[in-house]
Amino acid sequence: MGHLSESAAVILAGGLGTRLRPVAADRPKVLAEVQGRPFLVYLLDQLESFGIREVVLCTGYLGGQVRARFGEAYGPLRLLYSQESSPLGTGGAPRLALPLIQSDPVLVMNGDSFYDTDLNAFFTWHEERGAMATMLLVEVEDMRHYGRVDLGGDSLIVGFVEKDGQEGRGWVNSGIYLVSRFGLETLQVGEPFSLERDVFPSWIGKEFYGYRGEGYFLDMGTPEGYALAESFFLRKRGIR
Asked: Which H or E run contains 131?
């Protein structure tokens, strides 16, 4: 069995950031500042803390700013860039980046959320099942703005509905996945598509699992979420 530290991480940092335009109109979402630091720093610090050493940044809108700010390394992390010439979505972006990735499985993360959880436990759980893909789940009080996930036996995903407006507490997509190289290789190259809307529903019944995580979760992709980011990271550091 492998270890998370041997895996490459892919951060999806190419979104247009339309929901954050009121507060970060001049930069990609991952460069929106929290406590005077780009949000991407918090994701990179988390990956470093779990021993990961290689990160591929899938950049798009204003992607040159990300490379100019971070360059080829961040501490012990080696940074590689997969720049879209046109928007490819959350599915097309990691497929485009696959030639830069050597590991199997691949850790894929949204660049506009943060989940303070045990990624090692997530990786071990995924490997024990020999999964094609595993989605890291978070329990939220209100599912309306998230991808709702239904689990069957042994935590196989039996239903996935992207932001259908259903209210109430439940398990939702955190935007973090472990995906086998085979799973990524099955995706179409150079085409724009969404993991959430196009890929995940088609993976149901194909060794596609959901892992129930624990910990604080922040969705920073909206002005409301961004406004909570400062207090979120203060709380994470134990400062009230």
From this structure: none
Cβ neighbours of 131 (radius 10 Å): 22
pLDDT single digits (tens) 110-136: 999 999 999 999 999 999 999 999 999
Residues in the chain: 240
Is 150 strand, coil or helix?
Answer: strand
Token couple for 83: 């720049």
Q: Per CATH, is 4-236 categorized as 3.40.50.300?
A: no
Q: Is 17 left (phi over 0), alpha (psi -120 to 50) or beta?
A: left
- pTM for this prediction: 0.92
Domain ranges of the chain: 4-236
Q: Residue 158 is inside which H or E element, if any?
A: strand 157-162
Q: Judge contact between 192 and 113, C-beta under 8 A.
A: no
- Could you report the per-residue pLDDT of 155-191, keeping only the tens digit for each? 999 988 876 666 778 889 999 999 999 999 999 988 8
